[in-house]
């Protein structure tokens, strides 16, 4: 399965409203999981089996909840049993279509 998720505390002690420190902790958890992942400006994408992906996301929620009484989580999943390597393969298929190959 592929999951795109965004997580953030709903409160911050940073005077400019930045959530970078708590989001960085969540990204650290994702990267240390060993699962295929990528982070962009809006979401972190994660690939793996249901239980392992959801376990990592729960760890991220717990880490952000440790610094905020409320956590916002946006999650989108592509559940396609039997397929792996889709984190890059989906993009490669689009690039092939764009190049006309």
From TrEMBL:
<comment type="similarity">
    <text>Belongs to the UPF0045 family.</text>
</comment>
<dbReference type="Pfam" id="PF01910">
    <property type="entry name" value="Thiamine_BP"/>
</dbReference>
<dbReference type="GO" id="GO:0005829">
    <property type="term" value="C:cytosol"/>
</dbReference>
<feature type="domain" description="Thiamine-binding protein">
    <location>
        <begin position="3"/>
        <end position="95"/>
    </location>
</feature>
<dbReference type="InterPro" id="IPR029756">
    <property type="entry name" value="MTH1187/YkoF-like"/>
</dbReference>
<dbReference type="InterPro" id="IPR002767">
    <property type="entry name" value="Thiamine_BP"/>
</dbReference>
<protein>
    <submittedName>
        <fullName>Thiamine-binding protein</fullName>
    </submittedName>
</protein>
<dbReference type="InterPro" id="IPR051614">
    <property type="entry name" value="UPF0045_domain"/>
</dbReference>
């Amino acid at each position: 399965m592929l999951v795109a998720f965004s997580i953030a505390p709903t409160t911050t002690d940073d005077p400019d409203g930045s959530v970078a420190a708590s989001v960085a902790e969540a990204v650290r958890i994702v990267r240390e999981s060993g699962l295929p992942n990528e982070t962009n400006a809006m979401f972190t994408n994660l690939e793996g089996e249901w239980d392992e992906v959801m376990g990592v996301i729960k760890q991220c929620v717990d880490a952000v909840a440790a610094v905020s009484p409320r956590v916002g989580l946006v999650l989108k999943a592509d559940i396609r049993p039997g397929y792996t390597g889709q984190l890059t393969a989906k993009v490669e298929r689009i690039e092939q279509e764009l190049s006309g190959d």
